[in-house]
Recover the amino acids of this structure.
């Protein structure tokens, strides 16, 4: 490990598997699906989602702060606090102008929009809360983390649809390499399990309609997959220079060695059918890490469970790897957390690298015969790994890939 390497020293997770790193990791290892019937979605063609269980912002953050935050931002703050504590950092003593925040989100929050529109239609503009805008604008996840931690360095949000969380981590890597910061809290947060986005995704035929079996609905790479399952959550990493971590006695969890990004320039929502942009981002991330394709032992795949995306991702992997690495897809268990997905899966990739084990892909019962990948199913698989990659793809043809290596 080189002194100016960027290392991961902390992880924070809030996911449908539970609150905290241990809850999520144990849920992934168990391959336990989290999709359940959702009362807020009753009457819609897809009436189930993957919600974070027992997420009580007032209990976790205090009533005053919780009242100020929309759900996605509250999850971001909870995950950031855990990541910072995991890293052994004390915000009261760090050099706060050298600490930055980069958070990804696709839409921030659509939940309050319907209520506000209804009030306006009734001529009740005076009932629109003055908190509406500061609660819902996208930058508030990063801003509220900065406020909570006293981090006064660069503070920004990335928005590349379902690649947003991975883009945030890649952006943080670039910022650290330029010397803008010593430490950056980076990741993503999203909460879209509400009627408006569910109806919209449903009309696009993007969501699973497996209403008779919600728990089995998210099926990455399965022959019977029929769409993704909406989920919510947050994932945050603490990134810092290796010499900074060493100076304070921190033990790195992994090196964030490479980042690659691209645009399909193909279609507003559909991926390039051959995965050309995804393959380009994979090549770029591997090269940025100073590695070659055979060095990557494991890929934590985007794996949404939609017909087009899984097929395109398979073709991208085949284009990059003569023999594709061992693959898993966390969305089988956790659903699709949209702008948080890339960050949650980055955290899972770091944990896989650290524990030398790949979690199974939940609900993969009969692999699509046209997707010839070594996908882990049923039980975790021990695997010798020195380098892993995680892929994230979003509407607009946005592609982001991260590579992590052992410290």
């Amino acid at each position: 490990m080189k002194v100016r390497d960027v290392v991961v020293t902390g992880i924070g997770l809030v996911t449908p598997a539970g609150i905290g790193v241990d809850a999520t990791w144990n849920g992934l290892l168990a391959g336990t699906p989290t999709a359940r019937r959702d009362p807020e979605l009753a009457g819609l063609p897809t009436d189930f989602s993957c919600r974070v269980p027992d997420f009580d912002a007032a209990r976790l953050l205090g009533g005053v702060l919780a009242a100020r935050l929309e759900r996605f931002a509250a999850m971001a703050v909870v995950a950031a606090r855990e990541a910072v504590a995991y890293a052994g950092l004390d915000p009261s003593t760090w050099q706060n102008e050298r600490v930055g925040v980069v958070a990804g989100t696709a839409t921030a929050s659509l939940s309050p929009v319907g209520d506000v529109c209804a009030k306006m239609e009734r001529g009740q503009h005076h009932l629109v809360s003055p908190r509406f805008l500061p609660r819902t604008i996208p930058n508030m996840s990063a801003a509220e983390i900065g406020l909570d931690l006293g981090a006064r360095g660069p503070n920004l949000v990335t928005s590349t649809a379902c690649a947003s969380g991975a883009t945030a981590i890649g952006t943080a890597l670039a910022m650290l390499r330029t010397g803008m910061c010593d430490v950056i809290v980076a990741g993503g947060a999203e909460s879209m399990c509400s009627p408006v986005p569910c109806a919209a995704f449903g009309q696009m035929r993007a969501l699973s309609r497996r209403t008779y079996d919600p728990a089995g609905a998210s099926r990455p790479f399965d022959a019977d997959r029929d769409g993704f399952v909406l989920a919510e959550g947050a994932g945050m990493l603490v990134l810092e220079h290796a010499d900074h971590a060493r100076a304070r006695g921190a033990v790195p969890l992994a090196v964030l060695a490479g980042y690659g990004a691209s645009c399909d320039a193909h279609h507003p929502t559909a991926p390039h059918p051959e995965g050309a942009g995804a393959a380009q981002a994979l090549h770029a991330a591997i090269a940025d890490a100073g590695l070659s394709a055979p060095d990557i032992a494991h890929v934590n795949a985007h794996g949404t469970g939609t017909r087009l995306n899984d097929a395109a991702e398979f073709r991208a992997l085949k284009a990059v790897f003569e023999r594709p690495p061992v693959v898993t897809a966390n969305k089988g268990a956790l659903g699709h957390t949209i702008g948080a997905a890339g960050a949650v899966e980055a955290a899972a990739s770091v944990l896989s690298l650290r524990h030398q084990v790949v979690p199974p892909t939940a609900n993969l019962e009969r692999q699509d015969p046209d997707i010839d990948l070594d996908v882990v199913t049923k039980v975790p698989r021990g695997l010798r790994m020195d380098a892993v990659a995680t892929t994230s793809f979003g509407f607009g043809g946005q592609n982001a890939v991260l590579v992590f290596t052992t410290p």
